[in-house]
Design a protein that fits this description.
This protein is α+β, with helices and mostly antiparallel strands. The protein contains two helices and three strands.
C-alpha cells in the first residue's frame, strides 16, 4: 500500500473492527517494525475424562471463542482402573495478548 494511503486504511480498520486495537506501519523496510506482543492474561487448564472423538476440538473452540490461544499443551492416555475405558488428560497454558477486549472476563 502506498504511504499516503496508510492513514485511510488505518481509519477504515478502526471503523470496521470495532472493539479491536489496530496499528499500521510504514514497512518499506520490514526490519524497522518491531512487534513484541505482551501477555495480558495467562491461565492453566487441565481436562481429564473418558477419551472420545472431538474432545481437543471442543476445548480449543471454547478457548478461541474467549480470545485465548494455547501457549503450550500436552496430552496423555491411560487405561482406566475399572471398566477398560481409556482416560484422556490434556493440560496446558492458555494466554490472551494485550490489549484485552473490553468484554474480556475470565
Amino acid at each position: 500500500i502506498a504511504s499516503p494511503d496508510i492513514d485511510v486504511l488505518h481509519k477504515q480498520l478502526q471503523t470496521d473492527l470495532e472493539g479491536m486495537s489496530t496499528s499500521c506501519f510504514d514497512a518499506v523496510d520490514p526490519k524497522k517494525v518491531e512487534v513484541c506482543p505482551r501477555i495480558g492474561f495467562a491461565g492453566q487448564f487441565k481436562l481429564s475424562g473418558a477419551d472420545n472423538p472431538g474432545i481437543v476440538h471442543k476445548l480449543t473452540s471454547v478457548l478461541a471463542r474467549n480470545s485465548l490461544t494455547i501457549g503450550n499443551m500436552k496430552t496423555s492416555h491411560e487405561e482406566a482402573p475399572f471398566g477398560g475405558t481409556e482416560l484422556f488428560t490434556m493440560e496446558g497454558r492458555a494466554v490472551a495478548y494485550e490489549p484485552l477486549t473490553s468484554t474480556f472476563d475470565w
